[in-house]
């Protein structure tokens, strides 16, 4: 069945092939060990589903941690399925499955299902339709073959709680990438922002300044925390990958909203945490942007960068 999800994912992969699929896959491989470290303490051994497994970096890491378990890496993309089959050729405890996460319900008993860097792809690949993410989670949480005591693990981007922030680009690259974000992300949503400067408690707006004007006049960008987070999650990507990243939304829900969805399915939330990946802060954010907020007295004060990532575990 050719679903909207499947068609969109095919287009996305085609773009990645054009705009740097090797870079994309290499980045997933590089981040795989850290992701495995994070999720391993919550995995229930037995049969483990890796949904939207991509090229299999997480599956490969988990097989070393749980050698007695069976693994089912699942992906829709024929390209990725071929990679998975080649990677795990001759491995008896791994069964590669080609399927769409929105339409697919696994028909054998399983102990753990993981979505790692997956649900924002499901959401973005389906026209930013929340119901497709809910359906993908339903296919696990309400599956009769999901064992009691089994774990559903989600590791993905997270949306911060809403607040107004003031962002300072520290160099021309940061300023230029902010403008590219505003233009490229417009297909996803219009971003409400203004350039300006505080005169006392008044934020005086400036229209379309150059970076030189921003730098000379200490101008700031007034923008919501959720749009700030989307910008920060994307601006540092390689030029050839940027068009695809700008066509996606990395944070679907806040951590609290994600927890509500799991509880809606009757799962017990046993772990829920959001955090900023240190390499993003140290390698990118701190070099390119400063972030501020207004305190209770209306004074402009430094603010932490929004959390980039969440780890959420539900138990049946």
Automatic annotation (TrEMBL):
Domain Methyltransferase: 48-122
MF terms in GO: methyltransferase activity
Domain of life from the UniProt record: Bacteria
Gene Ontology terms: biological process: methylation
Signal sequence range: none
Protein keywords: Methyltransferase, Transferase
Keyword Methyltransferase: yes
Protein name as annotated: Methyltransferase
């Amino acid at each position: 069945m050719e679903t909207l999800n499947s068609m969109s994912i095919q287009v996305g992969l085609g773009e990645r092939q054009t705009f740097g699929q090797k870079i994309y896959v290499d980045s997933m491989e590089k981040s795989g060990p850290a992701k495995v470290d994070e999720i391993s303490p919550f995995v229930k051994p037995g049969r483990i589903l890796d949904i939207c497994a991509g090229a299999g970096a997480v599956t490969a890491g988990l097989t070393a941690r749980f050698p007695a378990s069976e693994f089912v890496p699942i992906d829709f993309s024929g390209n990725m399925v071929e990679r998975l089959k080649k990677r795990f050729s001759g491995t008896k405890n791994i069964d590669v499955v080609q399927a769409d996460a929105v339409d697919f319900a696994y028909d054998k008993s399983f102990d753990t299902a993981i979505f790692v860097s997956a649900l924002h792809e499901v959401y973005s690949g389906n026209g930013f339709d929340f119901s497709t993410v809910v359906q993908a989670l339903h296919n696990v949480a309400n599956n009769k073959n999901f064992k009691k005591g089994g774990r559903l693990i989600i590791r993905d981007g997270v949306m911060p709680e809403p607040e107004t922030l003031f962002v300072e680009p520290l160099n021309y690259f940061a300023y230029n990438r902010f403008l590219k974000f505003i233009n490229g992300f417009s297909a996803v949503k219009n971003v409400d922002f203004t350039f300006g400067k505080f005169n006392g408690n008044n934020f005086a707006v400036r229209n379309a300044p150059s970076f030189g004007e921003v730098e000379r006049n200490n101008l700031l960008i007034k923008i919501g925390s959720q749009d700030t987070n989307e910008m920060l999650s994307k601006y540092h990507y390689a030029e050839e990958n940027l068009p695809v990243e700008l066509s996606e939304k990395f944070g679907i829900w806040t951590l609290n909203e994600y927890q509500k969805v799991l509880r809606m399915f009757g799962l017990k939330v046993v772990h829920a945490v959001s955090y900023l990946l240190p390499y993003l802060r140290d390698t990118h954010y701190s070099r390119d942007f400063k972030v501020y907020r207004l305190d209770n007295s209306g004074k402009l004060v430094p603010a932490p960068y929004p959390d980039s990532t969440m780890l959420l575990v539900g138990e049946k």
